[in-house]
Amino acid sequence: MLTVLSPGPLTTVQDLGRPGLAGIGVGRSGAADRASAALANRLVGNEPGAAVLEATLGGLVVRAEADLLVVTTGARCPGSPVHDAPGLLRAGTTLALGAPAAGLRTYLAVRGGIAVEPVLGSRSTDVLAGLGPPAPGAGDVLPVGTPSGPLPGVDVAPVPDPPGGEVTVRLLPGPRADWLTGAALDRLAAAAWTVTAESNRVGLRLEGPVLERAVSGELPSEGLVRGALQVPPSGQPVLFLADAPVTGGYPVAGYVADGDVDRCAQLRPGQTVRLHR
């Protein structure tokens, strides 16, 4: 087992989420940075769907109650000697994650996976819907599952850390791009958008030039997915992440390419992002 001594600002249990349930009003959720979570599981020999801990801005402190093979990926935290390099956490010893210098979310994988009870087939915590296991708190003891796969035999994964400066991502056309003026669409692709402090696992609130609409009124609610770039009446876009709602009534002007949404999940308030059309 793994005992949480401190959860930091926000730590949740995440896996691949709940795909295929939007028809009954359940969003997918899952790890915000899927690539980093998948890498963590591969490095300790877990199945791709094993549950990991997603720590936001560090601060997570855990104690091993048995010898455990662990690794961290994503945002590099001071205090983790096992970042991108799996190692043994001996029984009774602690792992304390400091605040990362760049990036926002760090993934802690344990060989065997975090074996809390699943809800609707997933161990992911959806902060918007309130579904899934509760966020771990100080003193909580998390069960660890039985390892099922072979060890990969990798000492270290040579992957870059999340950048701390401006990030450029690919923007694909959205179904309601015609609801914005041509000038607004040009500004959407040309501006450096600042991530605001109101951002979370649901989505990034972006600040920049106002995007004017070419059509007045509102849409009936339509389906939403991770990566959708929605433009509310304020003209300031919202980029949806893992805990996106199932539907929304504001026009979706574009979609960030799926692989780039992982990079957006590592953006911190104050960072800028460019949407390359």
Give the overall form: elongated
Termini Cα gap:
47 Å
- DSSP summary: helix tally: 3
Count of the domains: 2
| SSE ordering | EEHEEEEEEEEHEEEEEEEHE
Structural class: mainly beta
- Average pLDDT works out at 96
Helical proportion? under 10%
Biggest sheet, open or closed, and with what strands and sense?
Answer: 7 strands, mixed, barrel
Total beta-strand segments:
18
Uncertain stretches:
none
Strands across the major sheet, in which order?
10-17-14-15-12-11-18
Radius of gyration: 19 Å
Oligomer: single chain
Percent of sequence in beta strands: 25-35%
Task: Provide structural commentary.
This protein is mainly β. The protein has two domains: 2-142, no CATH class; 167-276, Cyclophilin-like (Cyclophilin). The protein contains three helices and 18 strands. It has helices at 34-43, 182-190, 258-264; strands spanning 2-7, 10-14, 52-56, 60-64, 68-74, 87-89, 94-96, 105-110, 141-142, 167-173, 192-195, 203-207, 222-223, 228-230, 238-240, 247-248, 252-256, 272-276. The strands form four sheets. Strands 10-17-14-15-12-11-18 form a seven-stranded mixed beta barrel. A five-stranded antiparallel beta sheet has the order 2-3-8-5-6, with helices on one face. It has a four-stranded antiparallel beta sheet with strand order 7-4-1-9, with no helix packed on it. The protein is elongated. The mean pLDDT is 96.
